[in-house]
Design goal:
Length: 513
């Protein structure tokens, strides 16, 4: 019998333990001993709670979709599948068995098969086991809530506990021997420097550049699977500068706990808040103009960071400031491509070159093949419904083989319905594109450009200067493009369709004044 392995653990701390290895190696040993053939890599949900069936949307859900009749699912304990109400978990196991799939809880010695799912022994075993797991999980949650509430009360009295650390920044640690909260001085020095520089008048982008230049590690929670070093950005600095925990005050669940160690003085923190408020008030009232038309889709071709807009100084001093697109990595010092492209050029090319002619030819017409396929599938579905109805009549007439043929036809019907759903989704996605292009046409009013051959750019530029037009374009462009790559050094632009297909890359140098 072919088999698939499933495992799960529910909390992050278990990553450091042996749970994953134990579950997988134990299942493989059981399979070897009982002659089961493992046919895929193990399906494993890491740090996924089983109390509400969250794993059904992750690896366990994928396993159920890929498992077929005649196969087995190997799991250490049944509560690895979930710790929901026993009626819910029992229904899940019942439906799985009815599909012809066996579930083996190798540690408990329980085997649930299509043949024994209707027996009292199996039903009693599944229900009682699920009920025990559900109640255990409920008690565990209750104890956790009580522990947290007690930690808050103790904290207000000046008593430290390890529970408080999970609400504190990464530089705070718990010493289980001394039962005290202590500070990681290496990280604390970074925090002190950030507050000092900011209070000395150095802006957040400049601070980011300093930290990135000397490869200072960020204070995010460490993740073993991350293969790159995260860079500092202005948003992460703002979170640090506004976190009162560094001044010795933790605010959690409406409680104010001041028994934690201080990294900076109260005076330093208060001065920082005053400067933040002062800088915020200097910005003035926003014009509500959407300067960045590529706000959600523009990325740097090299570092893949977002593209932003900022005022740029022209080389010719007689000219005024202008808006330019640049890589966000330039601001925090993480991208070496530090050039800019005038926003006017980018936008004229984006709309003029890609949409000025016949955009339906560029982006493709509706896929008639999909519609023909859908008609064929619907015809097949009607034929299967008729066949199943006729087979039921044959069962009533005493045909013994008709029941087996009904199972086959039902399975074929289910596969056909799934294929119909996928095809409909493809047609829907395909048909949204012409609608989005039509919407963009109505926003820019292309039909009025017919006689504007010689001053086409002037007419388009005037249209793009309108605030309301820009707001509408920001919302419609993500319906047409999955992303737009800008190379600020080579000065090129290349959009990608929703399915990831790249469109023609255009050199912007010939458009620069």
């Amino acid at each position: 019998m072919n088999a698939r392995i499933y495992g799960r653990y529910s909390s992050k701390p278990q990553e450091k333990g042996d749970s994953k290895r134990r579950q997988i190696e134990g299942a493989k040993a059981y399979a070897a001993k009982h002659g089961l053939n493992i046919i895929s890599e193990p399906y494993f949900d890491e740090a996924v709670s089983g109390k509400a069936g969250a794993n059904l949307e992750k690896q366990f859900g994928r396993l159920l979709k890929e498992a077929t009749e005649g196969e087995a699912i190997l799991v250490e304990f049944l509560d690895r599948l979930g710790r929901q109400n026993p009626f819910i978990l029992g229904k899940l196991l019942y439906d799985t068995a009815r599909r012809g799939i066996t579930v083996i809880s190798w540690q408990e010695g329980k085997t649930i098969t299509p043949e024994n799912i209707d027996t009292l022994e199996t039903q009693f075993s599944v229900f009682t086991g699920s009920a025990v797991g559900h109640q255990e999980n409920t008690r565990k949650i209750k104890r956790l809530i009580e522990t947290c509430q007690q930690a808050y009360k103790d904290g207000e009295k000046g008593i430290q506990s390890g529970t408080l650390v999970k609400y504190l920044p990464q530089c705070y640690k718990w010493d289980d021997t001394k039962k005290t909260i202590y500070v990681d001085e290496t990280a604390a020095d970074v925090i002190r420097n950030i507050f000092k520089w900011f209070n000395d008048g150095i802006g957040r982008p400049t601070i980011c550049m300093r930290l990135n230049k000397i490869n200072t590690p960020t204070l995010y929670k460490p993740r073993e699977k991350v293969q790159f070093v995260k860079s500092w950005n202005a948003n992460s600095l703002t979170h640090i500068l506004t976190n009162e925990s560094y001044a010795g005050v933790l605010k959690v669940k409406g409680k104010r706990i001041d028994c934690i160690p201080k990294i900076i003085s109260r005076e330093t923190f208060d001065k920082t808040q005053m400067l933040l408020q002062r800088f915020a008030s200097r910005r003035g009232k926003s014009s509500e103009r959407k300067n960045n038309l590529l706000a959600t889709i523009g990325i740097c071709k090299h570092c893949k960071q977002a593209i932003e807009v900022h005022p740029s100084k022209p080389k010719n001093k007689t000219r005024k400031l202008y808006l330019a697109y640049r890589c966000r990595g330039r601001r925090n010092g993480t991208c070496q491509h530090r050039h800019t492209i005038p926003a006017r050029i980018v936008e004229l090319v984006l709309f003029g070159e890609y949409f000025g002619g016949s955009p339906e030819n560029l982006f493709g017409k509706e896929n008639t093949e999909l519609k023909e396929k859908l008609e064929t599938l619907n015809t097949k579905l009607n034929r299967l419904d008729t066949a199943i109805s006729n087979l039921f009549d044959m069962v009533e007439q005493g045909d013994k083989d008709a029941k087996e043929r009904i199972k086959l036809r039902r399975r074929e019907k289910e596969e056909t319905e799934n294929e119909i759903a996928i095809t409909k989704a493809s047609i829907t996605e395909d048909s949204e594109l012409p609608t989005a292009i039509q919407t963009l046409d109505s926003i820019l009013e292309w039909d009025k450009y017919a006689d504007a051959v010689h001053n086409f750019n002037d007419v388009l530029e005037a249209k793009l200067a309108d605030f309301e037009t820009r707001k509408k374009l920001v919302s419609v462009l993500p319906l047409i493009f999955s992303k737009v790559e800008l190379d600020t050094t080579a000065r090129t632009i290349q959009p990608f369709k929703k399915d990831g297909t790249p469109l023609q890359q255009i050199d912007l140098n010939s458009f620069v004044d």
